[in-house]
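Handout, section 4.2: multi-component inputs.
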Amino acid sequence: MKVSRYVLATFVFIAALEGFCRLDDYIQWGVGFFSVSSPSNLSVVDDLGKHGRPNAIFQKWRLNSHGFRNDFEVKKAKIAGQKRVFILGASESFGLFESDGMEYPAQLAKLLEEQGYQNLEVINASCAGMSLPDVRIYYEKFISRFQPDLVIYYPSPTFYLDDPPPTVAPGKNTDTGTIFEVRLLAKTRILLKKNLPESLKARRLKWLIGKEIEENRPEWVWHVAPEERLKLFEEDLHDFCDEVQESGSKIILATHASVLGTPDQTFDTQQYLEWRRYYPRAGYYCLLEFEKLSNVIIESVGEDHGLSVLDIDKSIPKTKEYFSDFVHFTDSGSEIFANMAVGVVAVKLDLDRNNSVAESMPRYVDHPNGKMKSKPPG
Amino acid sequence: MLFNSFEFAIFFPIVLILYWLLNKRWQNVLLLAGSYFFYGYWDYRFLSLIFISTIVDYLSAINIFYLREKGELRKSKFWMLLSVFANLGLLGFFKYYNFFTEPLVSLFSSFGISTNINTLNVILPVGISFYTFQTMSYTIDVYRGKISPTRNLLDFALYVCFFPQLVAGPIERAGALLPAVSNRRRFNSSQFIDGIHLIFWGLFKKVFIADNIAHIVNDLFALPNPTAADVAFAGFGYAVQIYCDFSGYSDIARGCSKCLGIELCLNFNFPYIARNPSEFWKRWHISLSAWLRDYLYVPLGGNRKGPLKTYRNLMVTMILGGLWHGAGWVFVLWGAYQGLLLCVHRFWSQCAIAKLNGENQKSMFPNVLQILTMFQFTCLGWLIFRAESVSQLKNFIIGLSGLNFGISVPGTLKIVLLGALLFSLEYLVVFVCKHDINKIFRFPIYTNAVIYAMLFYLFVFYGASAKSFIYFQF
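Output:
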């Protein structure tokens, strides 16, 4: 009898903890006590590929009825004179570690507003894990209906180091979403990840990576950037740029920034292991080289299509101040991105603005053959 | 390793499970090995100091007893003094070397004498002030004939370095802890559950209240030109922080110890409801104040040699008590301040006016006023204690006299909220449960499950990241 009382008390303890998690979410984020709120529920995979789930909420992440990370609703039809900028990309654009409202699309929107640009919507249609094929299908079947004037696409080339490489499998939506989730588990996972000693984290990652490698042949691991994957990335990027331009929208690309190669050796090793966890086939030099060559591809595709390319890779210093982890930005990192984008957006959209703020705008250089590369402010 | 760290969360359950699977002798071996591992985790080099202190005091006590039995009191005294000077020597070197050499060098150079005495970068070993005092009390008690020495080196070594209380107390008397360590322990479920309760409360106070207040208090103390409100909040905030930090640690220490079947002494008894300085020191860091009383104040003469000598003894005891906390003039000043409060209280309590007031002691109003007044004096003392330097104290005085009530640090009002939470909980225990915290532990099991789920949630998900305990620096 006594044992059963203690067992029951333990259940009460755990249930109370779950109750306090939900109460906390309600007080902090306004998430309904009985609502579904989990990180995995923020995205959905259906015939549009992988994209944001409409009306999903998890802590600071709130998606509107179209699955965009905006705190306003977006009508398909634009108001007369309104300009729309769509941001597409994966978790770097969706925003993971930045404070709420400090991911670069939100900072860009704020900057444009502060600089007096009116009648402009910046819509963050990114989603964590959204590969280039996902972006293309999503744009073709969904985003294009919103008549974007400009698309800013920040690609995540290392998806092409996945096994198999990214494709979109068209099909019916089989994802019903989470019906019920234990919020305590998600919070505990996040807490453990944050507080586990670095040595244990590293050990765990090495073990996981080692396990994957063991299951395959030694040649399975890439030590140099695989050419076929670079080629695939380049083709998909060309196709996407064609898609956007054919729909009548303009497009800005950006080179991909990572913290790999930072002088802080310990941080570099930690982040390499975290990154490799997702792409166990890619050794250190493969990752570095793939990043570098992908950026060359992005610049070359941009030149071929007459696009602006934001050189994010060279503009954001590879330090903890700007990177929360291997590729995700801090508030400061996102700020640099937004500052780089704002002038180019204004020029691309030929926006009207208040002349009094014009003098404070950073200067941008026109490329001799009409293509523009932006420079970071300052 | 810190009590509020991932490593301890792994270490303690492992020790606990193994402990209760072993018999008494092996339990002590496990505890000793665990304690050395616990301490060595910080810096294994400082284990040598614990070994030295252990061996010196073990041998000294046996010799003291043996020589006393033979009637050779002078030789017995020699061994006692050897132990005291060895321990004070360790403490003096590691803690006070620079504190004494720097003024000495300045003094000599003011007379034109150059010296070759160099200041050193001496690392202060964690817990040295605690375990040296603990072992000294052992040899002194043996010398006084209060206890017999133990011939079991294992038990004695465990008494010296028992990990729950090794680095920040309570400073245990050998008469209490040695028998607990030497005797067989039986698993007692009530004691074990009480231990878990104490660990929860301790973690809640330390991780949720103290650590969340810490960064605001640090910002307040870092202000170059604080306003009166900044100074007031700094004092109040630090009062809450140091109490929650230190009493939280003591609760965790006692809780861990209870889970191991060993009782440690109560170290904090709701000090902020003290009505006067004397009562405060019977409630705050009880083990240290009792140590100072028994081994310093009373040998100096206590209150047996007339009022003037009593005041002298109080001042000396408190100044040295202040110095125990750290090698700095602010600690000396704080000690002197506490001594002054005690002297003034003693003087007041012996005056006719105070005797008249005694008739009113039964009514609530004067008690509440006394508690609030004493709390203000305590907060003022904490301002002195926490100040980085004497010049910072001057800035506080200037700030207070400026009568500017603007708040310079954002989030300062959080101090008020957390302080209010703490005092509400203490009120619950003191006035509703009549000082008996065990009454809370005796709530229905399911009520306790919900209460502890709340505490657990707050300190796990809202606790600030693991910070060291304040008293580790002493």
